[in-house]
Protein backbone atom coordinates (compact mmCIF):
# COMPACT_ATOMS: atom_id res chain seq x y z
CA UNK A 1 0.00 0.00 0.00
CA UNK A 2 1.39 3.43 -0.96
CA UNK A 3 2.04 5.71 1.98
CA UNK A 4 1.50 9.46 1.81
CA UNK A 5 2.67 12.36 3.94
CA UNK A 6 -0.91 13.70 4.01
CA UNK A 7 -4.36 12.28 3.45
CA UNK A 8 -6.93 15.02 2.85
CA UNK A 9 -10.54 14.10 3.55
CA UNK A 10 -12.60 16.34 1.25
CA UNK A 11 -11.83 17.85 -2.15
CA UNK A 12 -13.61 21.16 -1.43
CA UNK A 13 -11.80 24.48 -1.49
CA UNK A 14 -10.08 23.95 1.85
CA UNK A 15 -8.83 20.49 0.86
CA UNK A 16 -7.75 21.62 -2.61
CA UNK A 17 -5.84 24.71 -1.44
CA UNK A 18 -4.15 22.66 1.29
CA UNK A 19 -3.22 19.96 -1.25
CA UNK A 20 -1.65 22.55 -3.53
CA UNK A 21 0.35 24.20 -0.76
CA UNK A 22 1.57 20.87 0.64
CA UNK A 23 2.57 19.70 -2.83
CA UNK A 24 4.59 22.92 -3.21
CA UNK A 25 6.37 22.10 0.03
CA UNK A 26 7.35 18.71 -1.42
CA UNK A 27 4.88 16.52 0.48
CA UNK A 28 3.01 13.63 -1.09
CA UNK A 29 -0.76 14.08 -0.87
CA UNK A 30 -3.82 11.93 -1.41
CA UNK A 31 -7.36 13.32 -1.43
CA UNK A 32 -10.59 11.41 -0.95
CA UNK A 33 -14.20 12.54 -1.18
CA UNK A 34 -17.48 10.85 -0.45
CA UNK A 35 -19.09 12.65 -3.38
CA UNK A 36 -18.69 11.46 -6.96
CA UNK A 37 -16.94 14.70 -7.94
CA UNK A 38 -14.26 17.07 -6.72
CA UNK A 39 -14.84 20.64 -5.51
CA UNK A 40 -17.22 20.28 -2.56
CA UNK A 41 -19.83 23.01 -2.65
CA UNK A 42 -18.08 25.14 -5.25
CA UNK A 43 -18.47 22.34 -7.82
CA UNK A 44 -19.83 23.46 -11.19
CA UNK A 45 -21.11 21.06 -13.84
CA UNK A 46 -21.16 21.93 -17.53
CA UNK A 47 -24.58 21.30 -19.04
CA UNK A 48 -25.14 22.42 -22.65
CA UNK A 49 -22.28 24.87 -22.42
CA UNK A 50 -23.54 26.42 -19.17
CA UNK A 51 -21.61 25.99 -15.93
CA UNK A 52 -24.25 25.10 -13.35
CA UNK A 53 -23.46 25.99 -9.73
CA UNK A 54 -24.77 22.71 -8.31
CA UNK A 55 -24.68 23.73 -4.65
CA UNK A 56 -25.87 27.31 -4.97
CA UNK A 57 -24.56 30.48 -6.58
CA UNK A 58 -20.91 31.11 -5.78
CA UNK A 59 -19.44 34.55 -6.39
CA UNK A 60 -15.80 35.04 -5.57
CA UNK A 61 -14.98 38.34 -3.87
CA UNK A 62 -12.06 39.49 -1.76
CA UNK A 63 -10.00 42.52 -0.86
CA UNK A 64 -6.97 40.35 -0.18
CA UNK A 65 -4.56 40.78 -3.10
CA UNK A 66 -2.56 37.67 -2.21
CA UNK A 67 -5.73 35.53 -2.35
CA UNK A 68 -6.83 37.16 -5.61
CA UNK A 69 -3.45 36.58 -7.25
CA UNK A 70 -3.42 33.03 -5.92
CA UNK A 71 -6.75 32.05 -7.52
CA UNK A 72 -5.89 33.91 -10.74
CA UNK A 73 -2.66 31.93 -11.03
CA UNK A 74 -4.75 28.82 -11.79
CA UNK A 75 -7.49 30.25 -13.97
CA UNK A 76 -8.57 33.63 -15.26
CA UNK A 77 -11.51 35.28 -13.51
CA UNK A 78 -14.15 37.16 -15.52
CA UNK A 79 -15.67 40.57 -14.81
CA UNK A 80 -18.89 39.30 -13.21
CA UNK A 81 -20.23 41.72 -10.60
CA UNK A 82 -23.06 40.52 -8.45
CA UNK A 83 -26.07 42.85 -8.76
CA UNK A 84 -29.15 40.91 -7.65
CA UNK A 85 -32.63 42.18 -8.34
CA UNK A 86 -35.51 41.81 -5.87
CA UNK A 87 -39.00 40.91 -7.08
CA UNK A 88 -41.60 42.00 -4.54
CA UNK A 89 -45.13 41.14 -5.63
CA UNK A 90 -44.19 41.66 -9.28
CA UNK A 91 -42.33 44.95 -8.87
CA UNK A 92 -38.53 44.98 -9.30
CA UNK A 93 -35.99 46.71 -7.06
CA UNK A 94 -32.20 46.88 -7.22
CA UNK A 95 -30.06 45.43 -4.47
CA UNK A 96 -28.16 46.05 -2.30
CA UNK A 97 -30.03 49.03 -0.85
CA UNK A 98 -28.80 52.03 -2.83
CA UNK A 99 -30.03 55.15 -4.63
CA UNK A 100 -31.67 53.01 -7.35
CA UNK A 101 -33.68 51.16 -4.67
CA UNK A 102 -34.65 54.40 -2.93
CA UNK A 103 -35.77 55.91 -6.24
CA UNK A 104 -37.82 52.80 -7.10
CA UNK A 105 -39.39 52.78 -3.64
CA UNK A 106 -40.02 56.47 -3.01
CA UNK A 107 -39.18 58.39 -6.20
CA UNK A 108 -36.39 60.27 -4.35
CA UNK A 109 -33.56 61.42 -6.59
CA UNK A 110 -30.82 62.73 -4.31
CA UNK A 111 -28.95 61.26 -1.33
CA UNK A 112 -30.31 64.05 0.82
CA UNK A 113 -33.92 63.20 -0.06
CA UNK A 114 -33.27 59.49 0.53
CA UNK A 115 -31.70 60.12 3.94
CA UNK A 116 -34.58 62.38 4.94
CA UNK A 117 -37.10 59.68 3.96
CA UNK A 118 -35.28 57.00 5.98
CA UNK A 119 -34.99 59.35 8.95
CA UNK A 120 -38.72 60.14 8.79
CA UNK A 121 -39.59 56.41 8.85
CA UNK A 122 -37.14 55.66 11.65
CA UNK A 123 -38.60 58.40 13.86
CA UNK A 124 -41.88 56.49 14.19
CA UNK A 125 -40.13 53.58 15.94
CA UNK A 126 -37.85 55.29 18.50
CA UNK A 127 -35.15 52.61 18.21
CA UNK A 128 -32.07 53.72 20.12
CA UNK A 129 -30.21 50.43 20.32
CA UNK A 130 -31.47 47.76 17.82
CA UNK A 131 -32.06 44.47 19.62
CA UNK A 132 -33.03 42.23 16.72
CA UNK A 133 -32.97 42.05 12.92
CA UNK A 134 -36.25 43.92 12.49
CA UNK A 135 -35.10 46.86 14.60
CA UNK A 136 -31.71 46.88 12.92
CA UNK A 137 -33.23 46.87 9.44
CA UNK A 138 -35.71 49.67 10.20
CA UNK A 139 -32.88 51.75 11.70
CA UNK A 140 -30.79 51.28 8.58
CA UNK A 141 -33.28 51.74 5.74
CA UNK A 142 -36.74 52.50 7.16
CA UNK A 143 -40.04 50.65 7.30
CA UNK A 144 -41.01 50.49 3.60
CA UNK A 145 -37.86 48.75 2.43
CA UNK A 146 -37.85 46.51 5.47
CA UNK A 147 -41.41 45.35 4.76
CA UNK A 148 -40.93 44.87 1.02
CA UNK A 149 -37.39 43.58 0.67
CA UNK A 150 -36.32 42.13 4.00
CA UNK A 151 -39.16 40.85 6.17
CA UNK A 152 -40.54 38.05 3.96
CA UNK A 153 -37.18 37.04 2.48
CA UNK A 154 -35.46 36.77 5.83
CA UNK A 155 -38.31 34.77 7.37
CA UNK A 156 -38.14 32.33 4.47
CA UNK A 157 -34.37 32.12 4.61
CA UNK A 158 -34.04 31.56 8.34
CA UNK A 159 -37.42 29.99 9.15
CA UNK A 160 -37.83 32.48 11.99
CA UNK A 161 -39.36 35.92 12.50
CA UNK A 162 -37.11 38.95 12.08
CA UNK A 163 -37.82 39.89 15.70
CA UNK A 164 -36.27 36.56 16.77
CA UNK A 165 -33.10 36.90 14.70
CA UNK A 166 -29.86 38.66 15.66
CA UNK A 167 -29.25 42.15 14.27
CA UNK A 168 -25.84 41.30 12.79
CA UNK A 169 -27.27 39.19 9.92
CA UNK A 170 -28.50 42.28 8.12
CA UNK A 171 -25.40 44.37 8.77
CA UNK A 172 -23.62 42.34 6.07
CA UNK A 173 -25.63 44.08 3.36
CA UNK A 174 -24.32 47.43 2.15
CA UNK A 175 -26.56 50.53 2.36
CA UNK A 176 -25.31 53.13 -0.11
CA UNK A 177 -26.32 56.64 -1.06
CA UNK A 178 -24.86 56.21 -4.55
CA UNK A 179 -26.30 54.58 -7.68
CA UNK A 180 -24.18 51.46 -7.22
CA UNK A 181 -25.73 47.99 -7.56
CA UNK A 182 -22.57 46.04 -6.71
CA UNK A 183 -23.57 43.63 -3.93
CA UNK A 184 -20.07 43.57 -2.46
CA UNK A 185 -17.65 46.25 -1.30
CA UNK A 186 -14.58 44.11 -1.98
CA UNK A 187 -11.86 45.28 -4.31
CA UNK A 188 -11.78 42.10 -6.43
CA UNK A 189 -14.69 40.06 -7.72
CA UNK A 190 -15.43 37.54 -10.47
CA UNK A 191 -16.14 33.96 -11.52
CA UNK A 192 -13.44 31.58 -12.78
CA UNK A 193 -13.74 31.25 -16.56
CA UNK A 194 -14.87 27.69 -17.25
CA UNK A 195 -16.31 27.30 -13.74
CA UNK A 196 -14.98 26.48 -10.28
CA UNK A 197 -14.32 22.81 -11.07
CA UNK A 198 -11.46 23.89 -13.36
CA UNK A 199 -9.96 25.91 -10.51
CA UNK A 200 -10.07 22.92 -8.17
CA UNK A 201 -8.73 20.54 -10.85
CA UNK A 202 -5.70 22.77 -11.35
CA UNK A 203 -5.05 23.05 -7.63
CA UNK A 204 -4.98 19.30 -7.10
CA UNK A 205 -3.16 18.42 -10.32
CA UNK A 206 -0.56 15.73 -9.65
CA UNK A 207 -2.21 14.49 -6.42
CA UNK A 208 -3.84 11.06 -6.14
CA UNK A 209 -7.60 11.44 -5.80
CA UNK A 210 -10.26 8.86 -4.95
CA UNK A 211 -13.95 9.75 -5.18
CA UNK A 212 -17.11 8.05 -3.90
CA UNK A 213 -15.42 6.96 -0.69
CA UNK A 214 -16.58 7.84 2.78
CA UNK A 215 -13.61 8.16 5.13
CA UNK A 216 -15.54 6.62 8.00
CA UNK A 217 -16.35 3.41 6.09
CA UNK A 218 -12.69 2.40 6.44
CA UNK A 219 -11.16 4.98 8.73
CA UNK A 220 -8.40 2.68 10.01
CA UNK A 221 -7.33 1.77 6.49
CA UNK A 222 -7.17 5.41 5.44
CA UNK A 223 -5.39 6.47 8.61
CA UNK A 224 -2.73 3.83 7.99
CA UNK A 225 -2.05 5.31 4.55
CA UNK A 226 -0.73 8.67 5.72
CA UNK A 227 1.41 10.24 8.39
CA UNK A 228 -1.07 13.07 8.90
CA UNK A 229 -4.71 13.73 8.04
CA UNK A 230 -6.42 16.96 7.05
CA UNK A 231 -10.11 16.49 7.77
CA UNK A 232 -12.62 18.88 6.18
CA UNK A 233 -15.87 17.03 6.97
CA UNK A 234 -18.33 17.67 9.81
CA UNK A 235 -16.56 17.88 13.15
CA UNK A 236 -19.38 16.24 15.12
CA UNK A 237 -19.37 13.26 12.79
CA UNK A 238 -15.63 12.77 13.33
CA UNK A 239 -16.33 12.30 17.04
CA UNK A 240 -19.34 10.07 16.39
CA UNK A 241 -21.83 12.76 17.54
CA UNK A 242 -20.88 11.94 21.12
CA UNK A 243 -22.19 15.27 22.43
CA UNK A 244 -25.08 15.45 19.94
CA UNK A 245 -25.65 16.94 16.47
CA UNK A 246 -24.60 20.44 15.47
CA UNK A 247 -27.42 22.17 13.57
CA UNK A 248 -27.43 23.73 10.10
CA UNK A 249 -29.76 25.51 7.71
CA UNK A 250 -30.03 23.69 4.45
CA UNK A 251 -31.16 24.65 0.95
CA UNK A 252 -32.81 22.50 -1.68
CA UNK A 253 -32.41 23.33 -5.35
CA UNK A 254 -35.01 22.75 -8.04
CA UNK A 255 -33.07 22.96 -11.28
CA UNK A 256 -34.74 23.22 -14.68
CA UNK A 257 -33.41 23.23 -18.23
CA UNK A 258 -35.44 25.65 -20.37
CA UNK A 259 -34.87 24.58 -23.97
CA UNK A 260 -35.14 27.30 -26.58
CA UNK A 261 -35.16 30.05 -23.94
CA UNK A 262 -31.89 31.95 -24.25
CA UNK A 263 -32.59 34.47 -21.48
CA UNK A 264 -35.15 33.75 -18.77
CA UNK A 265 -34.78 36.59 -16.26
CA UNK A 266 -31.98 38.82 -17.59
CA UNK A 267 -29.90 38.50 -14.44
CA UNK A 268 -28.00 35.79 -12.56
CA UNK A 269 -29.90 36.33 -9.29
CA UNK A 270 -33.49 37.41 -8.68
CA UNK A 271 -34.67 37.34 -5.05
CA UNK A 272 -38.38 36.82 -4.33
CA UNK A 273 -38.78 38.88 -1.22
CA UNK A 274 -42.48 38.34 -0.40
CA UNK A 275 -43.41 35.79 2.25
CA UNK A 276 -45.82 33.79 0.04
CA UNK A 277 -43.55 32.67 -2.84
CA UNK A 278 -42.13 29.43 -1.44
CA UNK A 279 -38.61 29.82 -2.86
CA UNK A 280 -36.18 32.56 -1.87
CA UNK A 281 -34.55 33.20 -5.22
CA UNK A 282 -34.02 32.05 -8.80
CA UNK A 283 -30.52 31.68 -10.18
CA UNK A 284 -29.99 31.75 -13.96
CA UNK A 285 -26.58 30.16 -14.26
CA UNK A 286 -25.48 31.34 -17.72
CA UNK A 287 -25.30 34.99 -16.56
CA UNK A 288 -22.33 34.17 -14.33
CA UNK A 289 -20.17 33.58 -17.37
CA UNK A 290 -21.99 34.86 -20.45
CA UNK A 291 -22.30 38.51 -21.32
CA UNK A 292 -23.70 40.37 -24.35
CA UNK A 293 -24.04 38.33 -27.55
CA UNK A 294 -22.88 35.11 -25.86
CA UNK A 295 -26.22 34.96 -24.01
CA UNK A 296 -28.25 34.69 -27.21
CA UNK A 297 -25.67 32.52 -28.95
CA UNK A 298 -26.39 29.86 -26.33
CA UNK A 299 -29.97 28.79 -27.20
CA UNK A 300 -31.03 27.30 -23.84
CA UNK A 301 -30.88 28.31 -20.23
CA UNK A 302 -30.77 26.61 -16.83
CA UNK A 303 -32.43 28.02 -13.73
CA UNK A 304 -32.49 26.90 -10.09
CA UNK A 305 -35.15 27.80 -7.55
CA UNK A 306 -33.77 27.81 -4.01
CA UNK A 307 -35.83 26.66 -1.05
CA UNK A 308 -34.43 27.27 2.40
CA UNK A 309 -35.19 24.48 4.88
CA UNK A 310 -34.64 23.46 8.47
CA UNK A 311 -31.85 20.87 8.49
CA UNK A 312 -32.47 17.26 9.55
CA UNK A 313 -29.67 14.75 10.15
CA UNK A 314 -28.90 13.30 6.72
CA UNK A 315 -29.53 16.58 4.81
CA UNK A 316 -26.65 18.53 3.25
CA UNK A 317 -25.20 20.78 5.94
CA UNK A 318 -24.91 24.29 4.47
CA UNK A 319 -25.15 27.18 6.91
CA UNK A 320 -23.90 26.66 10.49
CA UNK A 321 -26.39 28.01 13.03
CA UNK A 322 -24.17 30.17 15.19
CA UNK A 323 -26.50 30.55 18.15
CA UNK A 324 -25.41 30.03 21.77
CA UNK A 325 -26.52 26.41 21.94
CA UNK A 326 -24.59 25.35 18.84
CA UNK A 327 -21.57 27.48 19.70
CA UNK A 328 -21.31 25.75 23.08
CA UNK A 329 -21.63 22.35 21.46
CA UNK A 330 -18.98 23.23 18.90
CA UNK A 331 -16.61 24.36 21.67
CA UNK A 332 -16.83 20.86 23.17
CA UNK A 333 -16.00 19.21 19.86
CA UNK A 334 -13.20 21.71 19.25
CA UNK A 335 -11.58 20.72 22.54
CA UNK A 336 -11.53 17.12 21.32
CA UNK A 337 -10.14 18.21 17.94
CA UNK A 338 -7.37 20.25 19.58
CA UNK A 339 -6.24 17.18 21.48
CA UNK A 340 -5.64 15.21 18.25
CA UNK A 341 -2.01 15.03 17.19
CA UNK A 342 -2.28 13.42 13.77
CA UNK A 343 -5.42 15.15 12.49
CA UNK A 344 -5.89 18.78 11.43
CA UNK A 345 -9.47 20.11 11.21
CA UNK A 346 -10.07 22.78 8.59
CA UNK A 347 -12.81 24.42 6.53
CA UNK A 348 -16.46 25.23 6.85
CA UNK A 349 -17.68 21.92 8.29
CA UNK A 350 -14.69 20.95 10.41
CA UNK A 351 -14.57 24.41 12.02
CA UNK A 352 -18.35 24.88 12.01
CA UNK A 353 -17.98 28.36 10.65
CA UNK A 354 -19.64 30.25 7.81
CA UNK A 355 -16.57 30.95 5.70
CA UNK A 356 -16.82 32.66 2.33
CA UNK A 357 -14.46 31.22 -0.25
CA UNK A 358 -11.74 33.82 0.17
CA UNK A 359 -11.80 33.24 3.93
CA UNK A 360 -11.43 29.48 3.43
CA UNK A 361 -8.35 30.16 1.29
CA UNK A 362 -6.88 32.51 3.90
CA UNK A 363 -7.51 29.87 6.54
CA UNK A 364 -5.79 27.15 4.48
CA UNK A 365 -2.79 29.47 4.00
CA UNK A 366 -2.65 29.88 7.77
CA UNK A 367 -3.12 26.21 8.68
CA UNK A 368 -0.69 24.81 6.11
CA UNK A 369 1.75 27.65 6.81
CA UNK A 370 1.97 26.46 10.41
CA UNK A 371 2.84 22.87 9.48
P1 LIG B 1 -16.93 21.93 1.39
O1 LIG B 1 -17.01 22.59 0.08
O2 LIG B 1 -18.19 21.53 2.06
O3 LIG B 1 -16.01 20.61 1.20
C1 LIG B 1 -15.97 19.55 2.12
C2 LIG B 1 -15.80 18.27 1.31
O4 LIG B 1 -15.57 17.18 2.21
C3 LIG B 1 -17.05 17.90 0.52
O5 LIG B 1 -16.70 17.67 -0.84
C4 LIG B 1 -17.55 16.63 1.19
O6 LIG B 1 -18.16 15.72 0.28
C5 LIG B 1 -16.26 16.05 1.76
N1 LIG B 1 -16.48 15.16 2.89
C6 LIG B 1 -17.14 15.45 4.04
N2 LIG B 1 -17.16 14.37 4.85
C7 LIG B 1 -16.48 13.39 4.22
C8 LIG B 1 -16.18 12.04 4.52
N3 LIG B 1 -16.59 11.48 5.67
N4 LIG B 1 -15.49 11.29 3.64
C9 LIG B 1 -15.09 11.83 2.45
N5 LIG B 1 -15.35 13.11 2.10
C10 LIG B 1 -16.04 13.88 2.96
N6 LIG B 1 -18.76 31.75 -0.61
C11 LIG B 1 -18.41 32.86 -1.32
O7 LIG B 1 -17.28 33.35 -1.19
N7 LIG B 1 -19.28 33.42 -2.21
C12 LIG B 1 -20.53 32.92 -2.43
O8 LIG B 1 -21.29 33.46 -3.25
C13 LIG B 1 -20.94 31.77 -1.68
N8 LIG B 1 -22.17 31.25 -1.84
C14 LIG B 1 -22.52 30.14 -1.12
C15 LIG B 1 -23.81 29.62 -1.30
C16 LIG B 1 -24.20 28.50 -0.58
C17 LIG B 1 -25.59 27.93 -0.78
C18 LIG B 1 -23.31 27.91 0.35
C19 LIG B 1 -23.72 26.71 1.15
C20 LIG B 1 -22.03 28.43 0.52
C21 LIG B 1 -21.62 29.53 -0.20
N9 LIG B 1 -20.33 30.07 -0.07
C22 LIG B 1 -19.98 31.19 -0.78
C23 LIG B 1 -19.34 29.44 0.85
C24 LIG B 1 -18.47 28.38 0.14
O9 LIG B 1 -19.29 27.35 -0.36
C25 LIG B 1 -17.46 27.81 1.14
O10 LIG B 1 -16.61 28.82 1.60
C26 LIG B 1 -16.55 26.68 0.60
O11 LIG B 1 -17.20 25.84 -0.28
C27 LIG B 1 -16.07 25.87 1.78
O12 LIG B 1 -15.12 24.90 1.37
P2 LIG B 1 -14.78 23.68 2.32
O13 LIG B 1 -13.70 22.89 1.63
O14 LIG B 1 -14.52 24.13 3.70
O15 LIG B 1 -16.13 22.81 2.43
N1 LIG C 1 -31.65 39.79 2.82
C1 LIG C 1 -32.92 40.27 2.65
N2 LIG C 1 -33.41 40.47 1.39
C2 LIG C 1 -32.66 40.21 0.29
C3 LIG C 1 -31.36 39.73 0.46
C4 LIG C 1 -30.88 39.51 1.74
O1 LIG C 1 -33.62 40.50 3.62
O2 LIG C 1 -33.17 40.40 -0.83
C5 LIG C 1 -31.17 39.56 4.20
C6 LIG C 1 -31.40 38.13 4.69
O3 LIG C 1 -31.73 38.18 6.06
C7 LIG C 1 -30.04 37.49 4.53
C8 LIG C 1 -29.12 38.67 4.86
O4 LIG C 1 -29.79 39.80 4.30
O5 LIG C 1 -29.86 36.43 5.43
C9 LIG C 1 -27.74 38.55 4.27
O6 LIG C 1 -27.85 38.44 2.87
P1 LIG C 1 -26.79 37.63 2.02
O7 LIG C 1 -27.15 37.74 0.58
O8 LIG C 1 -25.43 38.03 2.45
O9 LIG C 1 -27.12 36.15 2.51
P2 LIG C 1 -26.45 34.74 2.19
O10 LIG C 1 -27.44 34.07 1.29
O11 LIG C 1 -25.11 34.97 1.56
O12 LIG C 1 -26.39 34.15 3.55
Account of the 3D structure:
This protein is 33% helix and 20% strand. The protein has 371 residues and is of the alpha/beta class. It folds into two domains: 4-81 and 188-246 and 321-369, Rossmann fold (3-Layer(aba) Sandwich); 93-172, no CATH class. It has helices spanning 13-24, 65-72, 99-106, 111-123, 133-158, 168-171, 196-203, 219-224, 235-238, 293-297, 324-338, 357-369; strands at residues 4-9, 29-32, 44-47, 50-53, 60-62, 85-88, 91-94, 188-190, 208-210, 226-231, 248-258, 269-272, 281-284, 301-310, 319-320, 343-345. Helix 4 (111-123) crosses helix 5 (133-158). It binds flavin-adenine dinucleotide and uridine-5'-diphosphate. Residues 9-15, 32-35, 40-42, 55-60, 214-216, 232-233, 251, 318, 347-349, 355-358, 360 line the site of flavin-adenine dinucleotide.
List keywords for this structure.
371 residues, alpha/beta, 2 domains, 12 helices, 16 strands, binds uridine-5'-diphosphate
What's a concise summary of this model?
The chain is an alpha/beta fold and 371 residues long. The chain has helices at 13-24, 65-72, 99-106, 111-123, 133-158, 168-171, 196-203, 219-224, 235-238, 293-297, 324-338, 357-369; strands at 4-9, 29-32, 44-47, 50-53, 60-62, 85-88, 91-94, 188-190, 208-210, 226-231, 248-258, 269-272, 281-284, 301-310, 319-320, 343-345.
Amino acid sequence: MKKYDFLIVGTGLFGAVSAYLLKQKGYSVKLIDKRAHIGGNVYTENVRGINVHKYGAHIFHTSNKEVWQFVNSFVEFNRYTNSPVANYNGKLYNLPFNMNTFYQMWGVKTPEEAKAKIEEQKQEYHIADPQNLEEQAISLIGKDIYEALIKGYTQKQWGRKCTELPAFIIKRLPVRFTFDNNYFNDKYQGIPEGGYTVLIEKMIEGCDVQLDVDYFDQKDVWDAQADRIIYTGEIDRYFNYQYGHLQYRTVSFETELLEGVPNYQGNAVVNYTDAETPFTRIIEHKHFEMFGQAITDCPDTIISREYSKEWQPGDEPYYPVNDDKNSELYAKYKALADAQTKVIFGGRLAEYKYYDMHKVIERAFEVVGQL
